[in-house]
Amino acid sequence: LALEADLRRAIDEKQFILHYQPQLDLLDNRICCVEALIRWQHPRRGLVGPFEFIPMAEETGLIARIGNWVLEESCRQMAEWRARGIDGVRLAVNLSPAQFADPGFPERIANILTRTGLPASCLELEITESIAMASPVETEKVIRRLVSEGVSFSIDDFGTGYSSLSYLRQFPIQTLKIDRSFVKDVDAGNGASDICEISILLAHKLGLDVVGEGVETPEQLDFLRRVGCEKVQGFLVSRPLSAESTEQALGAYR
Ligand code: G
Ligand code: G
Ligand code: MN
Ligand code: NA
């Protein structure tokens, strides 16, 4: 397949870049976190989004190398921003199931943190419900090991996967990210607002923070604020930004 060959070459030729999407803390109105989002600068197709190549990277096993690069580069970048005086902002990184299943994963994270000088407390790893449920016993071990080193975890796209409540209780995760499909429909009168509200209540009962994802309108923001959501991410706050623009956005908040 042409795309697969291109993807292999992309790793060697360093065609990937990271954008960062800010997360706003509604309690103090500051950017508290940025989520690293990969893009592929394809020599002919231009900027290609992750939906177009992450699935293939997962099928072909290339995700391991790509995922390692994302972790290394985003941690390096955040450490650099911190060295330039940007403080109090954490980094969130998306993980694929195969990365998480690699027995060397916790060690790799520890090494990356050492190499880049990024404090573990600045790193948040986003896992999906399918990672959480793939092999719960192993997953819990890996999460506990990394949490003991200071790394934190969030559940991404909450409500769209298996949504087992047992892992929410069992795993030491810190944050629940409500999927944007629910946030999008909070004014549609089709139950989405109830799901958001109940998810926030559940999270808080369990001692978790909540991020509302995909917030695009002031009405959606008002709703989330009203029902106690403490953090939001979405185009209303900011689109994903280049590294350069992210640095400016973070600097402006100092
Ligand atoms: O960046 P965009 O908003 O188009 O992201 C689309 C999807 O790709 C999201 O589900 C996001 O979690 C995923 N994604 C973005 N960057 C990465 C990455 O570095 N690794 C993995 N595994 N998924 C990513
Ligand atoms: O699955 P994950 O939450 O990692 O997905 C992040 C993806 O969501 C990225 O592709 C990002 O570009 C996209 N995204 C972020 N904010 C918004 C938004 O407000 N609206 C829409 N439609 N997509 C968004
Ligand atoms: Mn995410
Ligand atoms: Na999500």
From TrEMBL:
Top-level taxon of the source organism: Bacteria
Domain (EAL): residue spans on this chain: 1-254
Protein name: PAS domain S-box-containing protein/diguanylate cyclase (GGDEF) domain-containing protein
